[in-house]
Design a protein that fits this description.
This protein is 28% helix and 17% strand. The chain is α+β, with helices and mostly antiparallel strands and 445 residues long. This is Metallo-beta-lactamase domain-containing protein.
C-alpha cells in the first residue's frame, strides 16, 4: 500500500498495457489514496508477437496478483486471455492464453481479493471452450505464513474444488494454496517452441507484510517488487528492520544480474546501461531499479536522521523545526557535540512536524511508520533482528547508532505486550491514544 502525499493528482494509467514481449499489466480497477491508480496485476507469458491466429495451441501464462474483490477487474483480464489488449475489442472470441498459475505477492486484500473472481471467470471459459481446446485449471501460489493464511483461506472459502489444482498433501481449504518457498521458480514454456520460456523466481522479502515475496523475471532481469517499492511515493510496512533487509536483498539480487533488455514500455530507448526495470505493485514502471532501491533505503535513513535532529528543537518552534527537517545532519552534529539543548518529543508532535502537508487520513499510517523508526533507534544495532535470508550487509543505520541506543520512551503504555523497553505497536484505537503523547528523549552520549 502506498504512502503518498495526499492531495497530489495521479497520472492516468491505461487499464491494460503490454509492457514487453513477456508481460502485460492489468490494473485492478481499485484506485484510492492507498493503492494509487489501483493494484497492478501482471500476466507473464513466453515471449510472443501477439499473433495468435497462427497458433494451434494456447499460450501458457502466469498471473501475478489478482487485485481486490472487484467484478470490474475480471473483464479486462478475460479480454487479454482472449487475445485482446483493449476493451474496445470486446467480444467472445476464442481463448488464446492458458492461465496456468496464479501467483500472489502477499496476503493484503488488494492483491488477493480477486482470486475467487478470477477462478470463476476461468470456469466460464472452460465451459465455453470448443471440445478440442484445453483451458487449464490453475494452481494458486502464496508464501505460507500462519499469521496471514487464515485471511487468505477465508477469501477463497466458497471457491469450488474443481476451480483450482489442489496442492499435494493438503486437505480442505489449505489445498487451495501451493506453498511458495524462497528461491522457488514457476515457469511457462511455449508448447510450440520449448526455447521460449519465462521464469519467475520467488524472493522472500518480508517487512511490508510477513509473507511478502518479490519475483525476479529471470529472462528479462526485471524485479516484480509487490508493495516493497511503488511507482510513486513510499510504502508502509509492518516491520521496519525486515523491510530494510528486504530492500537490500532486492538491490543485491539486481547487482548480480545483467541489465534489463531495452524495449520495456515506460523506459528510455537508450541510456539504460547497467540498470534493471522494476514492475511495482502500484504505479508506473520504474526504469532505474537499482537506483530506486538505493533511494528507498536512503529515504529511511533520512527519516531516521530527521527524527534525531528534531530533539534539538523545542516542539512547536516552527523555524527551528523546519531547519532541522531540511538540514538534519547539521542538527545531529550539534547534538553529538553537546552544542544544542535536548527536548522531549511525542509521536503526535513528530507526525505534525514531518507530515504537516499530508492529508489527515494518512496520519494513522505515518504514525505507525514513525513508531517503528523510534523502536529501531531505541535498540542497539546488535539487538536488531537478523534477516531470514543471507545478507551482505547489516541493516543500514546512521553512524551515531553504532554507539548504542539513540532514543528512549520515558513512559511505557498500559497495554504493553512484550518486555521491550519501548512501546509495542498498538492494536486498537484505544492503544493508539495511549501512545500519541508519550514522551521520547534523546539518550545517546
Amino acid at each position: 500500500m502506498a504512502n503518498p502525499a495526499g492531495s497530489n493528482k495521479l497520472d492516468r494509467m491505461t487499464s491494460v498495457m503490454r509492457l514487453n514481449r513477456r508481460a502485460v499489466r492489468i490494473l485492478g480497477q481499485n484506485p484510492s489514496s492507498f493503492t494509487l491508480q489501483g493494484t497492478n496485476t501482471y500476466l507473464i507469458m513466453p515471449p510472443c508477437d501477439w499473433n495468435f491466429e497462427d497458433r494451434t495451441t494456447l499460450l501458457p501464462a502466469m498471473l501475478v496478483d489478482t487485485g481486490d474483490a472487484r467484478e470490474d477487474y475480471v473483464p479486462y483480464l478475460e479480454q487479454v486471455l482472449r487475445g485482446n489488449l483493449s476493451m474496445l475489442d470486446e467480444g467472445n472470441g476464442p481463448v488464446r492464453l492458458a492461465l496456468t498459475d496464479i501467483i500472489l505477492t502477499h496476503w493484503h486484500h488488494d492483491h488477493v481479493g480477486g482470486v475467487p473472481f478470477v477462478l470463476r471467470m476461468l470456469d466460464k471459459l472452460r465451459e465455453e471452450a470448443a471440445p478440442h481446446v484445453h483451458v487449464p485449471v490453475p494452481r494458486v501460489h502464496k508464501f505460507p505464513e500462519p499469521r496471514t493464511d487464515a485471511s487468505f483461506f477465508e477469501r477463497v472459502r466458497y471457491v469450488p474444488p474443481g476451480a483450482y489444482v489442489p496442492a499435494p498433501q493438503k486437505q480442505g481449504l489449505e489445498s487451495v494454496m501451493w506453498p511458495l518457498h524462497d528461491q522457488a521458480t514457476v515457469a511457462v514454456v511455449d508448447p510450440e517452441n520449448a526455447r521460449l520460456v519465462s521464469t519467475l523466481r520467488a524472493l522472500y522479502t518480508p517487512g511490508h507484510a510477513a509473507d511478502h515475496v518479490m519475483f525476479l523475471l529471470e529472462e528479462d532481469q526485471i524485479l516484480l517488487t509487490g508493495d516493497n517499492v511503488l511507482g510513486r511515493g513510499s510504502t508502509v510496512f509492518e516491520d521496519l528492520i525486515l523491510y530494510m533487509h528486504s530492500l537490500q536483498r532486492g538491490l543485491d539480487v539486481l547487482s548480480d544480474r545483467a541489465a534489463t533488455p531495452l524495449g520495456v514500455v515506460g523506459t528510455p530507448m537508450s541510456g539504460m546501461a547497467g540498470e534493471n526495470v522494476l514492475f511495482p505493485g502500484h504505479g508506473e514502471v520504474i526504469p532505474k531499479g537499482k537506483d530506486t532501491l538505493r533511494r528507498y533505503i536512503r529515504h529511511r535513513l533520512d527519516r531516521e536522521e530527521q527524527l534525531v535532529a528534531l530533539f534539538a528543537c523545542r516542539p512547536g518552534q516552527k523555524q527551528d523545526v523546519m531547519q532541522a527537517i531540511a538540514y538534519p545532519a547539521k542538527f545531529v552534529a550539534r547534538l553529538r557535540c553537546h552544542q544544542a539543548a535536548r527536548y522531549a518529543w511525542t509521536l503526535r508532535q513528530f507526525v505534525s512536524a514531518l507530515y504537516e502537508n499530508y492529508s489527515l487520513t494518512m496520519y494513522p499510517a505515518v504514525a505507525r511508520v514513525l513508531l517503528l523508526h523510534l523502536q529501531k533507534l531505541a535498540a542497539s544495532l546488535h539487538e536488531l533482528k537478523a534477516a531470514p535470508f543471507p545478507t551482505r550487509e547489516a541493516v543500514p543505520s546512521m553512524e551515531w547508532h553504532a554507539l548504542g541506543p539513540l532514543v528512549r520512551c520515558m513512559q511505557l503504555p498500559k497495554y504493553q505486550y512484550t518486555d521491550m523497553p519501548w512501546p509495542d505497536v498498538p492494536r486498537s484505537e484505544d492503544e493508539w491514544r495511549q501512545v500519541w503523547d508519550l514522551p521520547w528523549q534523546l539518550v545517546a552520549t
